[in-house]
Amino acid sequence: MPSTKQLFARRQMRTRTHIQEKSAGRPRLSVFRSSKHIYAQIIDDGAGRTLVAASSLEKDLRGKVKTGADVAAAREVGLLIAERAKTAGLDKVVFDRGGYVYHGRVKALAEAAREGGLSF
Known about the structure:
Helix content is 42%, strand content 19%. By secondary structure, the chain is an alpha+beta fold. The protein has one domain: Nucleotidyltransferase, domain 5 (2-Layer Sandwich). A hairpin with a 4-residue loop joins strand 2 and strand 3.
């Protein structure tokens, strides 16, 4: 029987493969969710580099949110990543939820990024 980590890696690769088939060259908005914080970055897979990044660890957000591990923090990170993407000239991305379920913090980040002006 596969371990939890192996199952997560399998879900992650299945999601990533599906995204690469449908992306049409758009950059990827990748989400990482830890037990204490949430991180988002927009990655250009063609060049293999990160274009924009935001996380709940940033000093700007620490004063706004109580903890980095709740829906409010995820929402703030989503708005921040959208703002930075607009500044960098990005408006269309592909959302990569990784192996996480589209629910809770991941969903809050995605909806806030959409409200901020990103389309995916």
